[in-house]
Design goal:
There is one protein chain. The protein is mainly β. Helix content is about 5%, strand content about 70%. It has a six-stranded antiparallel β-sheet. β4 and β5 (about 95-105) form a beta hairpin. The longest helix has 5 residues, at about 50-55.
Length: about 130
């Protein structure tokens, strides 16, 4: 696989978000499934996202986690802004928490390679897995 990350969101009251990707460094798959409430629809492609293994660092090449997810914002093509907050507890003992505004692009829109279209927000519970062959 040569893609990094695809994500689809659909929240109309009760809803879901599905993210699947391939870490090109390890050539292993990752996924994220969110179930929750909100009003949001969208899809995205991000060639720079290698999944949780990159964010958690060495020694976290595979794992499974559960957590919370909150997102509010709007994106179109390579530009947009979002507020993201969440917490994740992984079975290997690692933890990830974040509260951050995210603006795309951070630099040149065409350099990022990220394209998305979404508007709205959601809050939910997520399940994350990575290091899948």
């Amino acid at each position: 696989m040569d893609y990094h990350q695809l994500r689809f969101l659909f929240f109309r009251g009760l809803g879901f978000s599905v993210k699947v990707g391939n870490n090109v460094k390890t050539n292993k798959l990752f996924f994220e499934l969110v179930l929750g409430f909100g009003l949001e629809t969208g899809a995205s492609y991000d060639p720079l996202d290698n999944g949780p293994a990159d964010r958690l660092g060495d020694g976290c090449n595979s794992g499974l986690g559960v957590g919370t997810d909150f997102q509010l914002g709007a994106t179109y093509g390579p530009i947009g802004g979002e507020f993201v907050a969440g917490y994740e507890q992984n079975v290997n003992g690692s933890r990830e928490s974040r509260v951050e505004p995210k603006f795309q692009p951070a630099t040149n829109p065409l350099d990022s390679g990220k394209y998305s279209g979404s508007v709205g927000g959601h809050a939910g519970i997520k399940v994350v897995g990575w290091g899948i062959k």
